[in-house]
Amino acid sequence: MTERAHLAVIGAGPAGLAASVAAAAGGVRVTLLDAAPEAGGQFYRQPAAELRARRPQALHHQWRTWERLREGLRTHVQSGSVRHLTEHHVWCVERNDDGFTVHALLGPEQEEPAEVRADAVLLATGGYEKVLPFPGWTLPGVVTAGGAQAMLKGALAVSGRTAVVAGTGPLLLPVATGLAAAGVDVSALVESASPKSFVRRSRALAAQPGKVAEGAGYAARLLRHRVRLLAGHTIVEAHGTERLEAVTAAALDGAGRVRPGSERRIPCDTLAVGHGMLPHTDLAETLGCGLDGLAVHVDDEQRTDVPGVWAAGETTGIGGAALSLAEGHIAGRSAAARLTGTEPGPGTWAAADRVRTRLRTFFAALDSVYAPPAHWTEQITDDTVVCRCEEVTGGAVREAVAELGAGDPRTVKLLTRAGMGWCQGRMCGPAVAGLAGCGLTPSRRPFARPVPLGVLARAGELDHQ
Predict the structure, then answer these.
(1) pLDDT tens-digit profile of 116-172?
(2) What is the CATH number of domain 380-436?
(3) What does the alpha-carbon distance between residue 253 and residue 194 come to, in Å, rounded to a whole number?
């Protein structure tokens, strides 16, 4: 067993699971590392066993796909071809002369270090939510759309009785329907995308009838629960003293500006808001992998431009679970073939390749539909907190740009401390870039998460798992 080629897969969401199963089936030894206590990632997040959920499948679609993945992983773990390391928070992947060392912190408190040596690495690190600030967005009761979904899936909990779901992107539909099915009174789904945008991209979207049917199913459930859809609208302010009490929504004109006089106040105690997703690329950037815009660049086999490193799923571009599964399967098969010295033949992953091609085209069209409003920065007042970690306001960022000459997020960071906090700019990065008038660019960091100095001092001296 120890003589077989060893592949480390980082991330146990759809892409990582598909890659691990495919690679193990291809004859390589796999170590699957993930920060969560159970496999599945955000998409297949499961309620804690202590909650004794009777129908966890009610919170998911594609449940049968999850069951097949779970059973495949279990089979390979039992045979010894896959080792699944849970609660391993990977902070760095290091290239060595004889392969790679994966550095991780163990457990919920992330206190104990661990290292895994491997011949190759497959990055399936997923993505994270993009949230654009507005007055009142720091009030208790305002959560991200993904956060609301995680609470529902993982804890069978909701943050209030009356909710508004807002922002833009396909994630809003399952969040709104999930909350409504859980008994929450969803007052409105506030989507900034205009219906005209869907009409302009109808041909590209219609090429995936399954996805269109999925969206129609969500729409039907929203109607059944009497959820009001406010398309072409945005949230301009959240109101409350101790916690959220209401939000103000307003219509957008054709240029993406708030239409004066269209504001309406909606009482609620929860606002689930999100504006799309961004790829997690920290580990890839540390390894020197090239990027396409904000995503990791890969070839037809999901190989990065660093030898021995593959990437799959949201880290190579946001595209949903089905695309992640296809990319993970291709990456796992490719890694197994390359590590065992077998040249992949024609048609090795032909079916997955067809799915990948169609879904990449579909989500490219969807990205153009679900773009945030063109003038969203105009809704950020000077006293709106932009960087929550360092409590930097919109006014401070504007001052750094207009009066101190900052023209990029890094200079704004040096002048205001925006992005120097615990999240290292992941939350405030899009807002700072927007206020600075420049595009969002990846911020290369040496580590993917905070690391104790003692762990750094002992790096390379641990017994390898």
Answers:
(1) 999 999 999 999 999 899 999 999 999 999 999 999 988 888 889 999 999 999 999
(2) 1.10.10.1100
(3) 9
Long-range contacts of 347-353 (CB under 8 A, 24+ apart): 352/326, 352/327, 353/300, 353/326
For 98, the token pair is 């004889």
Q: Are 260 and 220 contacting, i.e. CB atoms less than 8 angstroms apart?
A: no
Q: Which residue, among 276, 152, 173, has the nearest Cα to 217 in the 3D structure?
A: 173
The pLDDT of 280-308, averaged and rounded, is 96
CATH fold of the domain at 131-275? FAD/NAD(P)-binding domain (3.50.50)
Mean pLDDT (whole number) for 235-254: 96
Instruction: Give me the mean pLDDT over the 379-388 stretch.
Output: 96
Q: Specify whether domain 6-128+278-348 bears CATH 3.40.50.720.
A: no
d(CA 146, CA 124): 18
Q: Where are the domains of the chain?
A: 6-128+278-348, 131-275, 380-436
Q: In 3-state terms, what secondary structure has residue 383? A: coil
What's the CA gap between 166 and 128, in Å, rounded?
A: 17
**Range 399-417 average pLDDT:** 93
Measure CA of the first residue to CA of the last residue in the chain; give whole Å. 14
Amino acid at 246: A
pTM of the model: 0.93
- Burial class for 109, CB neighbours closer than 10 Å (0-12, 13-18, 19+): exposed
Mean pLDDT of 410-431: 91
**Residue 300 near residue 356 (C-beta atoms within 8 A):** no
Separation of alpha carbons 142 and 130, rounded Å: 14
